[in-house]
Amino acid sequence: MPKTIQEINDKIRKGQAVIVTAKEMKDIVSERGPEKAAKEVDVVTTGTFGAMCSSGAFLNFGHADPPIKMQKVWLNDVEAYTGLAAVDAYIGATELSISKGMEYGGGHVIEDLIAGKEVQVKATAYGTDCYPTKYIETAITLEDINQAIMFNPRNAYQRYNAATNTTDRTLYTYMGTLLPNMKNINYAGTGEISPLNNDPTYKTIGVGTRIFLGGTQGYVASEGTQHNPKSGFGNLAVTGNLKRMSLEYIRGAVIPKYGTSLFVGIGIPIPILNEEIAKATAVRNSGLKTGIFDYGVPRLQRPLIREVTYEELMSGEVEVKGVKVKTAPLSSQTISVKITKALKKWIEAKEFYLTEPADRLPQESVFKPMKMKSKTPPVSEVMSRPVITIGSKGNLAEVSNLLVEHSIDQVPVVDDEERLLGIITSWDITKATAEGKFDIESIMTTNVIHSKPNESLEEVSRKLEKYSINATPVIDEQGKVVGIITLTDINKVYRRMQR
Fold first, then answer.
1. What are the residue ranges of helices labelled H in 85-125?
2. Which pLDDT band, with edges at 50, 70 and 90, does 365 fall under?
3. Confidence class of residue 370 from pLDDT cuts 50, 70 and 90?
4. Are the C-beta atoms of 197 and 159 separated by less than 8 Å?
5. Is 53 a catalytic residue?
6. Residues 23 and 88 placed together within one structural domain of the fold
7. What single string gives the DSSP state of each residue in 259-275?
8. Beta pairing, strands 410-414 & 43-45
9. Residue 324 above 80 pLDDT?
10. Considering only CA atoms, which of 101, 94, 98 is closest in space to residue 120?
């Protein structure tokens, strides 16, 4: 007969409930089958610990005397959102410090508060009759403020894309550092012990489900933002009391050259109400798939390199096109297992009881991209062509004449089939003249920053800014020069769009 959550809670009170971790449940179902496992086991504890950028906390500072209606507020130089009441603010994990930049952010402020450290507070206001103070500078600890409520709009993804990079340059992304030429693959999630993988159709996890959050008890508030269950990318919005949390399970983080985040520990008990749920908790990493995507293409729809299982990802290397590529996790399996064990102990000690969800999570919602009223054209629609080029056997005088005749600043160097070999700029010519060099092969820059016809103008703008250049040649899949795009070309498009 199916069990109920109330019956399981009664067994917990009497010390009769059988609690196992997600890792233990796999073997139980494998040895005894889902039917017997459902009869024998009452609760399966799951866990995940990883970077969860969509996290933060609501803070209430209490009223000053004379009072202030905070218009802007900074905690350790990290701005918090104040569009709430007079002395309420929301500190987001990814907001960066004004003075320290990417070395410190909202996630670190949250960590410092949990650690009991003093946090510097600065606030400005426009002043009103009832809130006359216009500026405050003080320092607070977690004990000094009234409420500190963690509220994370998007946590505990069911699964996540793996990332690699096929370009010839290192990329710094929210998936960590991706080495050039597909030298590594980064992935997130804890696979078979992760909460939503053990209840993929949300039979027991819903609004109001009591969970382990950051070392204390919290709750599922709703489905998370960008909840996309049809694609296996369901996630949760969660909340809990920051004052009761532990640095074991909440830590600020820096993702190199990308920004800051917050590592969050979440554990969810799965009540084994029937055979179907027992079978779901038997999921193995070998049966959990995700995609390896090329983050070298910074678009919403990135190219899929191949499908892969979590078993392969967790093995330390994945074979791609006959080559073994090293993998690295952005989530901690060790701490996640620790969460499953801690939650198991809480339930066995009668310190944690299960809750009946007040509402089920949606299973039909689909993630929609942003609605764009105007869209920037791709490089192919903006680039200049035909391109003035020169062969590698030319000389300095020929290049100089081309620059003057066509009023341009650079000339791509090509072979007989118009494939890009290098580039010569007016600066290269000035330098070559000073050094007494006159042949193109000794003058040209061979490591050329280039673009592709299908790239967006945003991508090209970032290249120009990153490398302090004002143009890039555009090459096709064969490496042939098909155009050139300049900062002037891009600015013309943006000006037209702003009219």
1. 106-114
2. confident
3. confident
4. yes
5. no
6. no
7. EEEEEEEEE-EEE--SH
8. unpaired
9. yes
10. 98
Q: Is residue 57 part of a domain?
A: no
- Same-domain check for residues 433 and 330: no
Instruction: Decide: 333 and 314 in contact? Cβ < 8 Å.
Output: yes
In this structure, what CATH number is given to the domain that contains residue 485? 3.10.580.10
Residues 84 and 184 in one domain: no
Helix (H) / strand (E) element for 312: namely helix 310-314
User: What are the pLDDT digits (tens) for 73-106?
Assistant: 999 999 999 999 999 999 999 999 999 999 999 9
Same domain, 342 and 437: no
φ/ψ bin of 365: left (φ > 0), alpha (ψ from -120 to 50), beta (otherwise): beta
Q: Which of 423, 126, 94, 85 is nearest to 261 (CA)?
A: 94
Return the closest-CA partner of residue 110 out of 151, 49, 154. 151
Nearest to 64 by CA among 119, 135, 7: 135
Whether residue 498 is predicted with pLDDT greater than 80 in this model: the reply is no
Answer with the residue of higher pLDDT: 396 or 127: 127
Strands, E, within 310-433: which ranges? Answer: 317-320, 323-329, 359-360, 390-391, 410-414, 420-425
> DSSP letters along 353-371, please?
-----SEEPPSS----PPP
Please give the structure tokens belonging to residue 375.
């869209």
Residue 277 lies in a domain: yes
> What is the domain extent for residue 346?
5-52+151-360
| Residue among 454, 480, 482, 460 nearest 472 (CA) | 460
Which of 145, 161, 179 is the last residue before a domain boundary? Answer: 145
Domain ends where: 84, 116, 145? 145
Token look-up 């040649």 returns 473
CB atoms within 10 A of CB 459: 16
Residues in the chain, overall count: 499
Do 155 and 281 share a structural domain? yes
Q: Which residues of 425-445 are buried (b: 16+ CB within 10 A; e: fewer)?
A: beebbeebeeeeeeebeebbe
Q: Which of 130, 300, 370, 434 is catalytic?
A: 130
The bridge status of strand 420-425 relative to strand 410-414 is antiparallel
In a domain, 366, yes or no: no
Q: What is the pLDDT of residue 499?
A: 66
Q: Is residue 210 part of a domain?
A: yes
In terms of Cα–Cα distance, which of 467, 455, 462 is closest to 410? 467
CA distance 233 to 227: 6
Element containing residue 252 per DSSP (H, E): strand 250-255
For residue 375, the model assigns a pLDDT of 76
Please state the domain count of the chain: 3
131 and 40, same domain (yes or no): no
